[in-house]
Amino acid sequence: MDTASQIVSLLAHGDFAAVEERLADKIRSFLLPGSLQSTWQGVEQKLGAFQQQGSVSAVPTPQGLVQVVTCVFEGGSLDVNISCNDEGQVTGLTITPVGVVEQQANATYEPPPYSKPERFQEEEVQVGQGEWVLPGTLSLPRGDGPWPAVVLVAGSGPQDRDETIPPNKPFRDLAWGLASEGVAVLRYDKRTKVYAARLQTERETLTVKEEVLDDALEAVILLRARPEIDVAQVFVLGHSLGGYLTPRLGAADPKIAGLIFLAGSARPLEDVILDQMNYILSLSEPDPAAREQQLAALSRQVELVKDSSR
Asked: What confidence tens digit (pLDDT) does each residue in 118-148 have?
């Protein structure tokens, strides 16, 4: 609990550089210059000056323990939510309305009405082999088969097999719904979730091949090896970043029966990120000058990506 209180104290005293020093590498590498300062100052512009720290609590979540500090400002209160790794480095820092993290942690998943548990069964499986083996779940319709099947490929970030955002589990919804109607479904935890600590040491060379493509192709191989599956009817469904990369899977394995795009972008990824940040800053950054400064910094990074001479 000391870490969270210390971080809030540093923010309140305007020592943003000291906060950045406490961040884990993966967080610091994505942090835009001045974003901590502009975010905190934006809060104080809306709610007035920081007054004091209120209650401090530890909330267990599916992603790990979150330290929650309720901060009292002149015009109201907000929670500063901090998660840390085993070395005490900050791996997550968010500001939310009071009680949001606890509400999400205590929210209960409700199966969709179209799920018919009596029509399918589930089996724990391993996707891939060797140093990057991943845990997964195969949802199989009851009966003899052979069944058509689909691999679910998750979006960006260290997603679990259900793409959990409490209490929602959209990939579980899809798997249960499809399996209820005679389609086998394989979903799995991403490599960036299962091997997060190890991949931090390889982040300079990590590409979408390692993050997404290799494991998705292994999932297809696993399905084809199952006697319950129709090998000519193995499909791939990609969501978000997974959808963006789905054409590469089709090119790598032409025997895939079909590709399903779920909110996958058709534009260059760097352009999507710039537009997303523009939208996020329009909601969270009240200072136009600070907003433009952050967007300009990101725009320069986008230009470097597009400059083939570098």
From this structure: 999 999 999 998 999 999 999 999 999 899 9
pLDDT score, position 99:
92
Question: For 183-193, how does the pLDDT look when each residue is reduced to its tens digit (9 = 90+)?
Answer: 999 999 999 99
Contacting residues for 95 by C-beta, under 8 A, at least 6 apart: 39, 43, 78, 79, 80, 81
Q: From CA 30, how far away is CA 33, in angstroms rounded?
A: 9
* CA separation, residue 62 to residues 144, 174, 310 (Å): 36, 20, 41
Pick from 144-158, 196-210, 231-245: least confident: 196-210
Distance CA 201, CA 195 (A): 11
Q: What count of residues does the chain have?
A: 310
Per CATH, is 117-262 categorized as 3.40.50.1820? yes
Residue 301 in this model has a pLDDT that exceeds 80: yes
Buried b (16+ CB within 10 A) or exposed e, 107-129: eeeeeeeebeeeebeeeebebbe
Q: Report how far residue 239's alpha carbon sits from residue 256's, in angstroms, rounded to the nearest whole number.
A: 17
250 vs 132: CA distance, rounded Å: 22
The domain limits of the chain are 2-106, 117-262
Strand positions, DSSP E, the chain: 50-61, 64-73, 76-84, 90-96, 120-127, 134-141, 147-153, 184-188, 229-239, 258-262
pTM value surpassing 0.85: no
**Cα within 13 Å of Cα(265), Cβ side:** 13
What mean pLDDT comes out for the span 198-209?
Answer: 84
Assigned fold of 2-106: Nuclear Transport Factor 2; Chain: A, (3.10.450)
CB 117 within 8 A of CB 123: no
